[in-house]
């Protein structure tokens, strides 16, 4: 969906970055098409491995060196039919990529965007949108107990359950984060493109019968086009402004949070999630994120 998104944004930006996990070749191919269609736009492909903290730090450093950044979309995500751990962090891979690493990248980039805004590099508050999913409404993640250890437990692991849980936690954390960030500095929200046909999400190297033959028919019949999915991203960037700060944006409108977020138990869990996440990311980033991002 990156190509469709870049086409829609091309009139807004003088430089566009396409981000691919690990492999540059797919990004290069997409970039070449965009360069031919929009010769006046500087399209660049940067390597980013969302499972590697060092890669995330290196990517943010390159962003810090840019003159200005108006819009950022974090759309990395993964699913897996089997439980597996990251060889460096030790966390379950879907939880690592969809939540922990995405939140690290979000926090570091939000700090970069805030600094560029304060330096007068942007006319309006920059917008940072993170791609979520309405599968969060299906999550049955219990509010009681520590969060990280339960997400990291192989007992009862299921592909869609853990994906939905990771997206629920993402929205809960972003809602908390937005309360610490002034929308005059950075606007941050979560966007749901919906079920979109033609993406690689959920595909495995050794698919079973249902994934190989049944799922493609279902997605083709019910899924949105790439253009429609990308337009939800554009709405999250341009359509809601400051009123969308901390919101879940889906179907081109601000939508309710998951039911858990409106309960005392859910609010208590959100506080635990915040503490566990910030503790992990202090270690991962090697710097005081709060000092650079939350200071007024």
TrEMBL record:
InterPro entries: NAD(P)-bd_dom_sf, SDR_fam
Keywords: Oxidoreductase
Pfam families assigned: adh_short
An example molecular function term from Gene Ontology annotations: oxidoreductase activity
Alphabetized SUPFAM superfamilies for the sequence: NAD(P)-binding Rossmann-fold domains
Name of the protein this chain belongs to: Short-chain dehydrogenase reductase family
Organism the protein comes from: Fusarium albosuccineum
């Amino acid at each position: 969906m990156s190509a469709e998104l870049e086409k829609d944004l091309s009139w807004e930006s003088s430089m566009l970055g396409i981000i691919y996990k690990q492999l540059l070749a797919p990004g290069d191919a997409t970039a070449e098409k965009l360069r031919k269609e929009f010769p006046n736009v500087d399209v660049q492909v940067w390597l980013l491995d969302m499972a590697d903290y060092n890669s995330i730090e290196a990517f943010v450093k390159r962003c810090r060196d840019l003159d200005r950044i108006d819009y950022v979309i974090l759309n990395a995500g993964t699913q897996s039919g089997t439980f597996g751990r990251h060889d460096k962090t030790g966390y379950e891979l879907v939880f690592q990529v969809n939540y922990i690493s995405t939140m690290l990248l979000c926090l570091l980039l939000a700090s970069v965007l805030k600094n560029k805004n304060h330096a007068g590099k942007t006319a309006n508050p920059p917008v940072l949108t993170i791609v979520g999913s309405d599968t969060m409404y299906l999550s049955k993640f219990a509010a009681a107990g520590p969060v990280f250890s339960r997400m990291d437990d192989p007992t009862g692991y299921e592909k869609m359950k853990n994906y939905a849980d990771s997206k629920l936690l993402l929205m809960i954390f972003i809602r908390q984060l937005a309360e610490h960030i002034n929308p005059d500095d950075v606007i941050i929200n979560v966007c749901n493109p919906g079920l979109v046909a033609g993406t690689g999400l959920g595909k495995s190297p050794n698919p079973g019968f249902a994934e190989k033959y049944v799922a493609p028919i279902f997605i083709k019949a019910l899924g949105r086009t790439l253009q429609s999915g990308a337009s939800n991203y554009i709405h999250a960037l341009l359509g809601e402004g400051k009123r969308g700060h901390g919101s879940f944006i889906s179907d081109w409108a601000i939508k309710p949070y998951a039911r858990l977020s409106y309960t005392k138990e859910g609010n208590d869990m959100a506080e635990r999630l915040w503490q566990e996440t910030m503790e992990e990311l202090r270690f991962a980033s090697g710097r005081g994120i709060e000092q650079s991002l939350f200071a007024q």
